[in-house]
Amino acid sequence: MQLNQWLTTSSAGQKLLQAANLRAEESERTIWMFAFYTTTSMGLVWLEACTVALFLQTYGAENGLPWIYLASAGIGSGLGVLYSRLQRFLSLRHVIVLTAFLIAAPLLFFRIGLEFHQPTGLQAATLAGITIFLMRLWLEAIYVLNDLNTSITANQLFNIREIKRTFPLISSGILVADVISGFSLTVLITWVGLKNVIVLAGLMMVIGACILFYLSRTYQQSFPDVRRRQIDETQPDVQRRLQGPLRQYAVRLFVFFILAQVLFLLIDFQFLSQLQQRDTEEQIAIFLGFFNGTLGIFELAMQWLASSRVIERLGVFRSAMVLPVVVCCLGAIATLIATLSLKNPLFISLVLLKFLDELLHYTLFASVGPVLFQPIPDGLRSNIQALVRGIAEPLSTGATGLVLLGLVWISHNNVIGANVLHWLLPAVVFLAAIWLLTIWLLRQQYVNLLVISAERGQLTGDVDVKELKRAVVAALDQPGTDAHKRSCIELLTQLDPDHLIEVLAPRLMKFSPELQLKSLEVMLEHSTSSEMQATRSAYLPQVRLLVDQPLPADVLAMALRYIWLTEHHPDIRQLRPYLHPEVDPIVRGTVAALLLRLGTPKQKAEATNTLRLMLTHKEEKERVMGCRALGDALYMQALRVYVPNLLQDRSLRVRCALLEAIAATHLEEFYPALLRGLQYKSTRDAAMKALVALKDDALPILIRAAEDAHQPELVRLHAWKAIGTIGTTASREILISHLITNWGVNRGNILRILLDLPGEVGIEEVLNRLGRGGIEELIDHEIFFIGQLCAAKIDLRDELVAGQEAEFLRRALQDLQTDAEGRLFQLLKFLYPIERVKAAAFSLQSKSHSHKARGLEILDNTVDLLHKRALLSVLDHPSDWAKLQSLSEILYYEPMAPVRRLQRLMVLRHFLSDWALACCFHLARQQQWALSAEQTLACLQSPRGFVREAVLDYLRVASPRALHRLLPKLQQDTDPIVADQVKRLTHEFTQKAIKAPSSALDQPPSFSGGPDPQPI
To answer: By C-alpha distance, which of 804, 726, 736, 729 is closest to 769?
Structure first.
């Protein structure tokens, strides 16, 4: 916690966070995870160097490594299954810590086994020989278990948004370990000897396990306490079969990763074969330490400085081709050297090949690999990734070992040749060439799937923009439907709007009228900058050729707008023939708007007269086109006198077109008409579109409407929606600031709008502004509020308070609790994968106990909040009493008398709904309970008529004299029901005054209750 405070408050800490792309609340977990992975990896590097040296001297590469590869295929798959099975008997927290300690446990026994006589050559029957073979096999197992343990722990400690920032830093721990361990190994071997380094390696792994134990205890809320249950049924997408292009793409992905694994193993085999022929076991260990240290420095530099830039510059697939190209070239050189029987140059070439293979494999290849899964739908993506890692890679390892055994047997029996290396090097070159071909085929299917996903609105994740743009442009030139090409144009506007005109303008003559109209629209919309004006002018001839052809009216109007808004010195006189009455209103209105923009005073007068005739024409189409022309003219000038009448036009299309024109011309005096348009379903979409078009200029009036409690809830909701749709930084800032200060329905609406913003920009903005701690605080507020509601329902239960009014209040409180639970799920979506939260919410809404349990299980395995237990118990829907007991850590419940509890609810009136407030006053009237004057007068000013009505009914019984004084001030109430009630009460008091003395008003009934209770 002190580290978090220093990083947050000090300037150096903030700079460090910014440089590492971390947030303060993530820093401590990230540092501990980095420490765990680095220390464990240091032990692994030491163990690997010692084990490989002993293994090569005992068995040799040709006789031993194929068996290791073959056995590791079963080890990798088996340990993955065992790891998964353990979670059925132990909690995840215990599994990861136990695994970390078990990784190091056999190393002490291995050290003892090495004390026995060590055989030479192929005599592997002694205990020392068996120990060395088991050490080499256990090394393969350790890498599988350590990677699995690290990735699962990271996924539990960090949510999906945090892990994108933190895991690159955590995963670089193995690169740091390569550097430190590699260069320290020589010193350690000299100091304690080769065999004793194995003990030090085990000690480093134990230190890593202790760090993991500390992490699991400190952040135990991140790990579910229960054993793992099956939740796959909540993800129906996983059950779908791969069909069509998706199946082909998955097959090519399998081939891609299988070839990568096979080549990696073959290169490793040849490298170690050459290494064993040159040195003793200690020299081999020292060389490997130096090799790994040097390699680690280059890998760190590559990963931190170059990888992302290379991928950005070359694209995903060209970056993926770098490794097979390097392997192919260096493999060919090594084959030539081996043919000439040059031992030293062959060793150097294989060292260089191994160095570059590992460098590119753990940097470029590791960075490109996850991106290749992006075209696969979300529900299937993780499953395919698990299959590739859990089946494809282990099976390819086993197959490689089997092939190597066969080649070694052929070599030893002189069936074909005596040197297996002569056969493997050409095979490496051949497989690298096949790998290149696979990448090329994968690239084609990758782009096709992305285009299909874009058409369906499913384009997510990181994609290769250059490759996708190339495919989109090619699709425009190929035969296809207008719908498909329209989707390509829309996708092109997202991918590369700066070069849109260069792609579309030369193709205008080939397009259908619908595509011509769409192209001209986007060409005008995305070329407003001064740099784009020059590009727009360069393609004027193509648009002029279009105008010379017979065109539909809407296409001709758009082409004319493009030409005369692009020309540097346009000849406006050429537009006059289009003002004739026989010209289609779409074209005539467009030309009149252009003349109002660009013409001389005389031409503007002529255009104004044309629009005047259109705005007053009997035909609806004429008036609609006239209103649209007003929007294109920038300024209404003398024509604004027609706006009031047009706002009352009998045609809905005319009114909607005028609302858009008001926004386009920034006619501020008629902005209230835009807000009035939100009140009616028929004009709501047009009013929303107009308000959004005003951008930040509309924010002041929208904020006033959204904050005005006297506005209908529907108008306030659409005002918030309009603010969110505007999509500027200022609008998002407004939403986030009001998210903190609003409660109830308003907060729920704002949360929904922020979650619906495209590209999860709303989620990122909220996290940047409030941080994880701010979101957790809002969640705690909702949990606390639910606790207050549960306390009220217990103290106002039916056996204590009977009657219809009490039942209405209990139902209102239950509705408030349901709304608060809905806001909890909305807030959780800011911190955790949205699909998981949706699945949990859907399951918890079911009446089936098994479905509810599944929803809670999803949350238990997803949420890592400090008060996770309280959250789960609240959502578990047990009794209200059980919920209060589970909330004892954050909320102290003290039973209260019903009247006191009702008074306590009135203290919290700002958090209650209007209907719940009305129910409070109805219950107080029915039970004759006293409420404070301050609370009563405050609720009498409520914007909702039914609340004011309930207060008046309460005052009629509780304080007739106060009501008598207030009635004259309420004579002009805007709500007709309240106004009628005031008249009735006034008449009632008048009749009483006639029949009885006025002092009768001074006789209040005997109400129970006292001062407001203290908060819970």
So the answer is: 736
Confidence of residue 388 (pLDDT cuts 50, 70, 90): low
Please write the tens of the pLDDT for every residue from 177-203. 878 887 787 788 888 887 888 888 889
Give the model's pLDDT for residue 65.
Answer: 62
Q: What is the mean pLDDT of residues 647-667?
A: 89
CB proximity list for 355: less than 8 A, separation 6 or greater: 291, 294, 295, 298
536 burial via Cβ count (<10 Å: 0-12, 13-18, 19+): buried
What mean pLDDT is predicted for residues 269-290? Answer: 72
**Cα separation values, 125 from 119, 130, 131, Å:** 8, 7, 10
* Percent helix, strand and coil across the chain, each to the nearest 5: 80, 0, 20
Q: How far apart are CA 492 and CA 472, in angstroms?
A: 7
Cβ neighbors of 25 (< 8 A, separation 6 or more) are 4, 771, 772, 773
Residue with tokens 């005028």: 658
- Spatial separation of the C-alpha atoms in residues 918 and 937, rounded to whole Å: 13
C-beta separation of 588 from 614 below 8 A = yes
* Percent of the chain at pLDDT exceeding 70: 77
Closest CA to 821 of 751, 737, 919: 751
CA distance 297 to 458: 40
Q: How confident is the model at residue 461 (pLDDT cuts 50, 70, 90)?
A: very low
Among residues 195, 212, 228, the alpha carbon closest in space to that of 101 is found at 212
- Rounded Cα distance, 532 and 505, in Å: 13
Cα–Cα dist 910/917, whole Å: 9
State the residue for tokens 């701010």. Answer: 774
970-983 core/surface letters (b: 16 or more CB in 10 A; e: else) = beebebeebeebbe
SS3 1007: coil
Tell me how crowded residue 102 is: count the other CB atoms within 10 A of its CB: 13
C-alpha distances out from residue 991 to 979, 984, 1005, Å: 19, 11, 20
Q: CB pairs under 8 A, 24+ apart, for 700-703?
A: 701/671, 701/672, 701/674, 701/675, 703/734
Average pLDDT score over the chain = 78
CA angle 346/348/352 to nearest 5° reads: 115
Other Cβ atoms closer than 10 A to 130: 14
Q: Are 917 and 813 in contact (CB under 8 A)?
A: no
Residues 664, 683: Cα–Cα separation, whole Å:
17
Cα torsion angle, 397, 399, 404, 409, sign:
positive
Q: Is the pLDDT of residue 463 over 70?
A: no
SS3 973: coil
According to the model, what pLDDT value does residue 825 have?
Answer: 92
- Expressed in angstroms, the distance from the first to the final Cα of the chain is 30
Rg (CA), the chain: 37
Q: Name the nearest CA neighbour of 295 among 344, 230, 360, 208.
A: 360
Distance in angstroms (rounded) separating the CA atoms of residues 706 and 713: 9
Query: Quick check: 978 pLDDT over 50?
Result: yes
Give the residue-averaged pLDDT of 824-841.
87
What's this model's pTM, rounded to 2 decimal places?
Answer: 0.66
pLDDT at 161 over 60: no
The amino acid that residue 121 corresponds to is G
Tokens 């194929």 correspond to what residue? Answer: 66
User: Reduced to 3 states, what is the DSSP secondary structure of residue 418?
Assistant: coil
